[in-house]
Write a structure and sequence with these properties.
heterotetramer, A alpha+beta, B mainly alpha, C mainly alpha, D mainly alpha, A: alpha+beta, Immunoglobulin-like, 3 domains, B: mainly alpha, two-stranded antiparallel ribbon, 2 strands
Chain lengths: 334, 634, 201, 128
């Protein structure tokens, strides 16, 4: 491992500087789990090999240029010698190296990073892909949320990835490989963060107009904190306290909102948009398209299309006061 | 030597001129069956599509130059990247390498006077043209294909994609597939049967081995795509259930069939490039290829093993590992034919006295980029790593190094290399080398950073990306690179156009190439060879005694066949002289048939099935008319 | 070397006798190869879909008929012999015989096609191709094969008409190619039948 | 044994040496892949297919056959040692293909082994 790190420093100055220099939010090579750690090690090993192979070929070409005035190989020798090199370097060496790679990656690494069979982990959670947001369910509880996945740190969580419409791909680069969400199939991927933090993920399979705005974040937190969060998520929405909030709820239930959104504890049980029971507890709106602030929420409700052209949520042409009331209500859904 | 063969004033040569001459003017081009003219038609058409695809690429890069930019609306972006892929693969690289290079060169390299089925050759071109126009009409009507070039269902089904966009894609590609199939059949039979006497399989130029491999791959790969597209259209138009899980269908069926075609496709794209490289390297290294038999087999092996790797495009679909390992194993081993070739090329360069003129420079660039793309390709055979990086810009970088670096660079090199043969004039060397360096730097700048930006998490096919993920600077570099690259390509175009009119006369053999096309005048006469050459090695132009003997035959009228519109055939394995066959002359039917076929698909597109049926009858009718006139009546 | 050249130099252009298969033969063989792959893909899809469905055919869809298709296929396969005879007759220069044998084949195949069409439409009334993946692949497979039968009949019809004007080298090769094509279509017929009735076994 | 018969035998050896291993691998891929798909799908689950046995059998048949075709290539190669690959056919052509197939067949042997081993050592029907 350390040897590899050393080698990488030598071989990869360009890439390494680049990788070190950048934000790590979605970096496959900044692992936050054993699984992703193994995968990035696999990468660095292949990368080292690749640069060596590349150097050999470029070197040969340069030699050919240096030697352009003389017949025969630089080190002397003609057809036979050259053919021997082709056979050794072109057939034998690669067969050995590639077979080794096969065994290492496709038998060992693949096993040690694979999704566990159902029911073998402490926790299972369901993520359902929608055009274009992520519905997150915690089996065994009422909790339903969207685009923000909380998991306990140092715990193996089995994610069951399914889709409600087209093919999406669930991918949290710092935690594990990606897994496609395919109609009619139940795929799994293992999340097991070995440190607390927020890890960004994004839909990796082209899923239509707003494929670019289908991100999510995984929050890995201490078990106690996670349990508190989950308990709150499982509760129905808090009742409105101020008059504004009450009016907001009226608007929410009377206008089209409730046709698409669910707020548990009210009559709103729409299934098309994200569950808003605890929307105020989330840090972003529209699958990480905009931050979840009073101002943005206001503009979003006014005209969602300006942020996410083609999103299913229409502009309901509400008056400013109605929107203000809605904002007040939604911001109260902690 | 060969010069005598071309004595134009000789009565036999004049007779050949009369026999093989075709009608001049636009009508001549519409009815031509001359493989050289058809090759040129392919060449200019594919260049036009290359331009279109390039503009699409520049628009895409411009949109992605900065985060959150609004140059293109999302739907436009999706149509552009889909059409870019479809254009570059189906309307540029494949028709350019097989249609243009293959058509023009294969008969010249094997010493024949035309392809085995000249009229079918014309038909392939007209069908190809039809498919291209078909797809682009869609784009200009605002219905460009918009579900990605691999068009995954259910996104491509009517429920999620109600417009005709995907229908333009599917029907256009069916037509394109028919065209490629016919072309492939033609190449296989031509290479099997029309080789000059003495050209046994072991004396066949490597370019022809590449074209043979490509054609065989097409023959067995295209049906999968055709069936897949038929399934798709039946699902979209009349609600068949192949892909609907609820009713026993499976979206992955589409992916299996698509990649069963589309991975061999990748090798179909690069194989002719190998062929071009193996033509250019010996000429400028002034020696025969090292490990010739191994390289020949390697070309066939790539095409063959390419059929056993398709599911490595589906590693992230959750298929059982025990299914995936088969494809991972093949994916690793398919690398080896390429390593063989890469070492054979570099060894030939080292062992010879290479003269680094523009064509060889482009091949040098090709080797560098091909190795780079190949090495990142190996990584995708490691299932866990593939699942980490698939559908990211790391993949985009990989396949652009292969498709642009490894397929288009040899095409550019080949354009320079055979330009004197086709036009009779020399290109401008200085400009050519400048264009190489521009293209080389441009390619590296455009595609290398994509590796990094992919590794740090940028998925492919996003029309925009947020600031603050560390992607901005790389994307900007890529965009700058793409413009440099475009400049390089424009310089190539300028050089060729300029040299076409004011280049120095080239003579029959400016580079002293090894294969038969260099034994005849530039541009080649309609009949290609006054005396059908008799061959005793894979580099006949370097066997001067043989050529001298050929020259003598003109007087004696041996192997000249000036009596009729004829060319000799030989046995498949050992190139033993077999019989003389009458070659058909120009015919109006291929273009007519293609026209009706295209109209039939238009009718399917707008769901007028009865009228489509009528056009299909007209297709059969044209087929009958076509065969009513038989070659010997020419 | 010299050996080879003497071997290749033909005695003038008159030499027409052939020591290997003609281009047309190779052309149709390669064409058949790609067609076979096409049907291979269909059969592959059929069984892929079958693996993914517990009940085959699914509930509510009748088992495919066995006897009638089997008999029909047997009849169709028999025409292979007739077409082959036509080719032999043609090669022996007996043009009229070739013509009449082709006509005979055409009549039998026409009858076959007629009955198959009837069964096809009959099935369409029983269950819709847009009802299940089974129905979709079932009708697609049969439709594809029927289309090939029609194309084969078109080729024969064309030859019958051409042979009126006598026999040429070109037409003889055409006849040989068509014969080949029919053998292929009939092999397909057997594979299609096997796949089709598999659901009833 | 007449010359014609003998040359037929040699001819067969050359083509078998060239294509044998390739065909064997194709068979292994189709059957091996098919078996895994069948076993891991809705209907197939009920047919309790023993994937490992299948894979072992496939390897046990495939590897020897591939080796035989390698031997065939070697035989032709040694038979034609000293010829140049551009020499007149048929022997020049036989040398040409044998010289290449000797190395090419190694790939197919490798693929057959790796696929089999991979399929056996990984857990049946575990999503990946």
């Amino acid at each position: 491992m350390t040897g590899v790190r050393g080698a990488r420093g030598v071989l990869l100055t360009f890439a390494v500087l680049a990788l070190a220099g950048c934000a790590d939010k979605q970096n496959t090579l900044a692992p936050a789990s054993k699984q992703e750690g193994r995968i990035s090690t696999l990468f660095w090993i292949m990368m080292a090999g690749a640069w060596i192979g590349f150097a050999i070929i470029v070197g040969l070409l340069v030699l050919g240029w240096v030697n352009r005035r003389r017949e025969g190989l630089p080190g002397g020798g003609g057809e036979r010698a050259a053919t021997r090199i082709v056979i050794v370097m072109g057939v034998f060496v690669p067969i050995v190296l590639l077979s080794t790679l096969f065994v290492y990656s496709n038998i060992f690494v693949v096993k040690s990073t694979a999704a566990p069979p159902p029911g073998t982990t402490v926790r299972t959670l369901g993520v359902v892909g929608h055009q274009w947001f992520w519905e997150v369910r915690y089996p065994g509880t009422e909790a339903v949320t969207a685009n923000e996945i909380h998991i306990p740190v140092n715990t193996r969580v089995n994610v069951v990835a399914t889709t409600d419409d087209v093919i999406h791909s669930f991918w949290v680069p710092q935690l594990n490989r990606k897994i496609d969400m395919i109609p009619g199939r139940e795929n799994r991927v293992l999340l097991a963060a070995d440190r607390t933090g927020v890890f960004r993920g994004e839909c990796a399979e082209f899923c239509g107009l707003q494929h670019a705005h289908m991100s999510m974040q995984v929050v890995a937190e201490p078990v106690a904190k996670f349990k508190r969060w989950l308990a709150n998520m499982a509760r129905p929405a808090p009742a409105p306290t101020s008059s504004d909030e009450r009016r907001g709820r009226e608007v929410f239930l009377s206008k089209a909102c409730s046709g698409c959104h669910t707020v548990r504890g009210t009559d709103a049980a729409g299934k098309i948009g994200p569950d808003l029971t605890h929307v105020a507890s989330r840090s972003t709106l529209a699958a990480l398209t905009i931050p979840n602030t009073r101002d943005y929420l206001f503009r979003w409700i006014h005209d969602p299309q300006q942020f996410k052209e083609g999103v299913k949520m229409p502009s309901l042409h509400l008056t400013d006061s109605e929107v203000n009331a809605l904002v007040a209500y939604l911001r109260s859904l902690k | 030597m060969a010069v005598d063969v071309r004595a134009p004033e000789h009565p036999r040569v004049q007779r050949l001129e009369q026999v093989w001459e075709e009608r001049p003017g636009i009508l001549g081009w519409l009815t031509t069956v001359d493989h050289k003219r058809i090759g040129l038609l392919y060449f200019f058409t594919t260049l036009a599509f290359f331009g279109a695809g390039g503009i699409e690429a520049l628009l895409i890069r411009t949109q992605l130059a900065q985060p959150e930019s609004k140059v293109l609306a999302p739907d436009t972006f999706n149509e552009l990247f889909t059409t870019h892929g479809v254009t570059m693969i189906f309307l540029f690289v494949i028709p350019m390498t097989t249609g243009a290079f293959g058509n023009y060169l294969v008969p010249l390299m094997i010493g024949s006077r035309d392809m085995a089925f000249p009229r079918m050759n014309a038909l392939s071109y007209w069908l190809f043209l039809g498919s291209g126009i078909f797809i682009y009409i869609g784009l200009f009507m605002g219905f460009g294909p918009n579900a990605g070039w691999f068009d995954y269902v259910p996104l491509a089904l009517r429920h999620f994609n109600p417009g005709p966009n995907v229908d333009f894609y599917a029907l256009g590609l069916i037509l394109n597939g028919v065209s490629s199939t016919l072309a492939a059949i033609n190449f296989i039979v031509t290479i099997f049967k029309l080789r000059a006497p003495g050209m046994s399989l072991n004396r066949m130029p490597l370019f022809c081995f590449a074209m043979l491999a490509v054609s065989l791959a097409l023959i067995f790969a295209l049906p999968a795509l055709t069936i897949d597209l038929v399934f798709l259209e039946l699902s979209r138009k009349v609600g068949f259930q192949f892909f609907i899980p609820g009713n026993g269908g499976d979206p992955l069926l589409w992916q299996h069939l698509f990649w069963l075609f589309a991975h061999p496709e990748v090798y179909i794209i690069v194989l002719p490039a190998f062929g071009i490289a193996t033509s250019i390297i010996p000429t400028f290294a002034k020696r025969r290829m090292i490990a010739f038999p191994l390289v020949a087999l390697a070309e066939l092996l790539v095409a063959f093993i390419g059929f056993g790797v398709w599911a490595h495009h589906m590693f992230a679909t959750g298929l059982p590992t025990i299914t995936l390992v088969f494809f991972a194993a093949a994916t690793l081993m398919v690398v080896i034919p390429s390593t063989i070739q890469v070492y054979a090329w570099t060894m030939t360069v080292s062992a010879g006295r290479p003269e680094f003129r523009a064509p060889l420079l482009f091949i040098g660039g090709f080797i560098v980029f091909f190795v780079m793309g190949g090495l990142s390709g190996i990584m995708f055979a490691a299932i866990p790593f593939d699942q980490a990086t698939t559908d990211t810009y790391f993949v985009v970088a990989h396949f652009h190094f292969i498709i642009f670096g490894a397929a288009v660079f040899p095409i550019l090199g080949g354009m320079y290399y055979w330009f004197p043969k086709v036009t009779g004039r020399l290109y401008h060397e200085g400009l050519a080398q400048l264009s190489f360096w521009l293209a080389f730097v441009g390619t590296a700048l455009t595609f290398f950073p994509m590796h990094i930006v992919g590794l740090i998490g940028m998925p492919r096919r996003v029309y925009t990306y947020p600031h603050g993920l560390g992607w901005d600077s790389y994307n900007l570099i890529e965009t700058i690179g793409s413009y440099i690259l475009a400049a390089g390509l424009l310089l190539v175009a300028f050089n060729l156009i300029y040299s076409r009119f004011s280049g120095a006369p080239a003579g029959p053999d400016p580079f002293h190439g090894g294969t038969l096309e260099w034994t005849i005048p530039s541009p080649p006469p309609h009949y290609n060879f006054a005396v059908i050459p008799t061959v005793s090695s894979a580099y006949p132009n370097w066997d001067e005694p043989d050529r001298a003997v050929d020259a003598g035959k003109l007087e004696r009228g041996e192997l000249t066949y000036e009596a009729g519109h004829e060319t000799p055939t030989s046995t498949v394995r050992d190139g033993v002289f077999d019989e003389v066959v009458d070659m058909p002359s120009e015919s109006p039917w291929p273009v007519t048939l293609a026209f009706f076929a295209a109209l039939a698909l238009v009718m399917v597109l707008i769901s007028h099935y009865a009228i489509a049926g009528i056009f299909l009858l007209l297709v059969l009718f044209s087929l009958a008319g076509w065969h009513w006139k038989e070659p010997q009546e020419a | 070397m010299s050996v080879i050249r003497s071997m290749h130099a033909p005695p003038g252009r008159a030499d027409r006798h052939r020591i290997a298969r003609p281009n047309g033969w190779w052309g149709v063989v390669v064409f058949i190869a790609t067609e076979a792959t096409l049907f291979g893909t269909i059969f592959g899809s059929y069984f892929y879909l079958r693996f993914r469905t517990a009940a085959w055919p699914p509930k509510g869809i009748p088992d495919p008929a066995v006897t009638v298709p089997a008999i029909l296929t047997a009849v169709l396969v028999a025409t292979s012999l007739v077409v082959q005879l036509a080719f032999w007759a043609g090669r022996a220069g007996r043009v009229r015989a070739a013509q009449w044998l082709l006509v005979l084949a055409l009549i039998v195949q026409g009858a076959y096609f007629g009955i198959q069409m009837h069964l096809f439409l009959d099935d369409l009334d029983k269950f819709s191709p847009s009802g299940s993946a089974y129905a979709s692949i079932y009708f697609t497979m049969l439709g594809a094969h029927h289309a090939h039968v029609v194309f084969g009949m078109f080729l024969e019809l064309f030859l019958v008409l051409r042979l009126v004007a006598g026999l040429t080298n070109y037409r003889l090769i055409g006849l040989q190619a068509t014969t080949f094509y029919w053998h292929f279509v009939n092999v397909l017929a057997l594979c299609v039948l096997a796949t089709q009735i598999y659901a009833a076994l | 044994m007449s010359v014609a018969r003998q040359s037929k035998g040699v001819e067969f050896l050359q083509w078998f040496g060239l294509l044998g291993a390739a065909i064997v691998w194709t068979a292994q891929l189709i059957v091996g892949f098919g078996v895994t798909v069948a076993d891991c799908s809705v209907a197939g689950a009920g047919w309790n297919i023993d994937v490992d046995t299948w894979q072992i059998v496939l390897m046990a048949i495939g590897v020897p056959l591939a080796v035989v075709s390698e031997v065939a290539a070697l035989l032709i190669f040694s038979e034609t040692r000293g010829l140049h690959h551009n020499d007149p056919p048929p022997w020049g052509r036989r040398h040409f293909f044998a010289a290449a197939a000797v190395w090419g067949n190694l790939l197919f042997i490798a693929i057959i082994l790796l696929s089999g081993i991979g399929a056996i050592y990984n857990t049946p029907c575990q999503g990946s």
